[in-house]
Amino acid sequence: MKRIATTLVVFASCCLLAPSLSAQEATINHGCSLRGDPSTKNAPISHLNRNETVTLVSTRPRTGFYHVQTSDGTKGWVGIKYLTVGGESSAQPAPRPTPSASTGQTPTASPSASRAIAKGAFNPACTLPFAGVRNSAADDHCGIQGGSSAAAKQAESNSKNDFCEAAAAPQAVSYQDLLNLQSQSANIPKNIPDRKVVASLGEGKYVSYVAFVKGAHYSDVAAGEAVNCNIPGNDTNDIHIVLVQDPGPNVDECTSTTAEMSPHYRPPSWTPANIMKASAGHPVRVQGHLFYDGSHTPCTAHSRPNPKRASLWEVHPVYSFEVCDQTTIADCQSTTATWTPLEKVFGSTSPQ
Questions:
Q1: Main-chain phi, psi angles of 289, to 5 degrees
Q2: Domain end: 89, 110, 140, which one?
Q3: Domain CATH code at residue 204
Q4: Taking Cα atoms as reference points, which of 124, 106, 43, 79 lies closest to residue 290?
Q5: The predicted structure's pLDDT at residue 115
Q6: Per-residue confidence band for 3, with pLDDT thresholds at 50, 70 and 90
Q7: 192, 203 in Cβ contact below 8 A?
Q8: Total domains present in the chain
Q9: What does the alpha-carbon distance between residue 13 and residue 10 come to, in Å, rounded to a whole number?
């Protein structure tokens, strides 16, 4: 009788534990941030790559996040939409955003709408931080991972296409901050399939940066680049913005820093011509995702590679672009300065 009772207890325990054990592991379905708490208010503590396996500390999500543990033992929180548990995504299928007339934002659409999108389409993982308009040339033909099959390039594209870090106020970064980050990352290799090393330095933070614009142009229009699936043309490639600390015409571009406007859902008024016209003589404030672009090389005392820059740390993608009513960076950093979004300067201006 005692043996039967013991057997029943063991059997019951196995039945109770089986569902829990089977749900303990999950797979990252999109490169994302690992956070120290279940929110986006603070900077990420690390970065997780697509197809990475994590263990669920708890199978119950909290405020939209799962508590997980990575393979190296680090514990943190991951948004449920980035996890696939038991072979099925924890979130709804990727949505197809459309502009909202009432809010000016681009909300997510229903799962049925997303199923109509082509397999290689760009589907934002969150509500976009600007009033975007679907750019068919790019959004219907190039997904978040870009066009490369290389793991390092896919991880890089995931980061370049991160529009989901704007839940809290941005962290102000200075020109010196970007130079310091460059010094700290001087020995990081160009190809980094695991971007934890740059996430530990700050990649993934939502930042705000004030500078003057020296130049702006569509980049890599002849052949495109991997993040944009190597599709040539203006509408399918980034707008490269050269940012400097001095508005003078003779400032050395090797002292510059960079911001990039992604082609995905880019507002019609975000064009190189409008950027240059609106910013003439006035500092600008770019806010967005802090990114380490290891595919390039910064200027040195003996080398001036293109595109010229002082730091490989940049704002990419740009979430907002505003123009100051003052004419110096110091005055624009005061509380009395007025900032006007580029799209309000030009309204619904068509691409140029």
A1: -85, 125
A2: 89
A3: 2.40.50.140
A4: 43
A5: 30
A6: low
A7: no
A8: 2
A9: 5
* Residue 83, domain CATH: 2.30.30.40
Give phi and psi for 209, each to the nearest 5: -140, 130
Distances (CA, A) of 224 to 163, 183, 219: 21, 29, 8
Average pLDDT for 84-92:
56
For residue 98, give both structure tokens: 């459309």
Residue 235 lies in a domain: yes
Preceding amide of 307 cis, omega within 30: yes
Q: Which of 49, 65, 89 is the last residue of a domain?
A: 89
Amino acid at 290: L
> Alpha-carbon distance 44 to 37, whole Å?
9
User: What count of other Cβ atoms lies within 10 Å of the Cβ of residue 255?
Assistant: 17
**Mean pLDDT value across the chain:** 83
235: nearest Cα among 317, 326, 351: 351
The residue behind tokens 């956070």 is 35
Which pLDDT band holds residue 221 (cuts at 50, 70, 90)?
A: very high
Torsion over CA: 179, 47, 128, 137 (sign): positive
Q: Which 3 state secondary structure label does DSSP give 313?
A: strand
Quick check: helix, strand or coil at residue 116?
Answer: coil
**Residue 280 CB contacts under 8 Å (≥ 6 apart), including other chains:** none
Residue the block writes with tokens 């979130």: 91
**CB 238 within 8 Å of CB 261:** yes
Burial class (CB in 10 A: 0-12, 13-18, 19+), 266: buried
Backbone torsions φ then ψ of 317, nearest 5 degrees: -85, 160
**Element of type H or E holding 84:** strand 83-85
